[in-house]
Amino acid sequence: MRIAVAALSIALLLPPGAAQAADAAALKVLGFSPDGRYFGFMQYGPQWDAGRMQTEIVVIDVSRDRFVQGVPLRVTADMRDDSTSDNIEPVLKKFLAYAERRAASLLSAHKISKPGTLLARDAEARPGEHSSGSEMPPKGEGTAALAAKHPVLGELKLKLETKTMDWPKTSRNGTHKEAGSCAEEMDPEKGVAFRLTLDQGARSIVLQDDKTIPASRNCTIGYGIVEVHAFDRPDGKVTLAVVLGMHTRGFEGADRVFLAVTKVLDR
Known about the structure:
The protein is mainly beta. Helices cover about 10% and strands about 45% of the residues. The protein has one domain (about 5-265). The chain has three helices and 18 strands. A hairpin with a 4-residue loop joins strand 17 and strand 18 (about 255-265).
């Protein structure tokens, strides 16, 4: 297996539209730092039309709900000529182990070592599965509402609402060719943004309310809640990480990738 480490970029697993069919990435949560300040996850899968495997490792600074410097870390590898869906899993497992070794310094620098607790998951989204083309998981982007329960926080109800707005053209991290092509190629269709809220008893918290669409999301056409993770911090607070699935424009259909919204909650 030939391994190549691609250039780092501030983007979510954005598949080059002209190179791939519809792909659904799989999700692996890497955990939290011991103080709950950082949260990490990996998204990965084979991309058959491109003849390669790809993974991205993401670490988020929860205090800012932003990527840390130097991520996402993207690692790719050419697939063997005889690779099929029947024999890809053992090779993919070795590739993921290699990718985590490549990310060891990043994960160590932010002390990503604590698993936290999975509070809820949308089973129909099947976030642990990767697929391509017609094998796209049904409802693969997730659900609009998900309930969870935390031993101290109590009953939690998450609600995701989508809204349309103009496609992005640039971002603070530089011009994105994908953003420009969204406005041109998907006109008159608008871009899709979201508002994510958390109801905790009588308290309602806005976790995120997009005012613009970050160019790094590419041509996003749908969102859904996939998983909810929590970490009990030593300071008595709780770090919450809500993983969303996104459907973005692909070459022959919608691609499924992930993003995470994080928040520190008082008990």
